[in-house]
Amino acid sequence: MDLVDRLNDVRTRIAKASAAAGRAMSAVDLVAVSKTFDADAIRPALAAGQRVFGENRVQEAERKWPALRQETSGIELHLIGPLQSNKAADAVALFEVIETVDREKIARALAAEMARQGRALRLYVQVNTGLEPQKAGITPGDTVAFVAFCRKDLALPIEGLMCIPPADENPGPHFALLAKLAATCGLGRLSMGMSGDYETAIAFGATSVRVGSAIFGTR
User: Above 90 in pLDDT, residue 218?
Assistant: First the structure.
């Protein structure tokens, strides 16, 4: 299959998983993860109508997306990789959604840059549901207080939670935990599920899934 076939296959699977969960397909956004792929590899997805994309690194995204935006309107770009505070200004200028708010320093930097640039980004708090030391994200135990701090003290528009379950574990309990935390925080959005488990994530209430290799192929 070529990229468009793979993209359509993912869309079909999202529709089937949504129906099986008693949800509308429109309730689940597909974030096509284009990290490491160049503009030429992304253009077929744009031509097929995909408009929401995810990138891991600010600098890589800066090399690709300004030109692609000139060619195609309506693009929504998500930062799904860790953000360093010295890149906050660039991230606020480039992305519409940042899914990896995970510590006070980043939250404060984003609040300051959004005010300075007059941009109202949509934000997610990343939760390290597996307590993996090598992985970014706030601990589940600290999530409720951190979300409250971001929303009340910094007036940040936190709209949801994001997680990346451990690769060697059943993702279901991690998705269930994220959904429970989001409900406790009064948040309606859940970014969870990748190429290998997005159908499971939809069953647990994902409102966006981040799919890369199943669309773009092996990196």
Answer: no
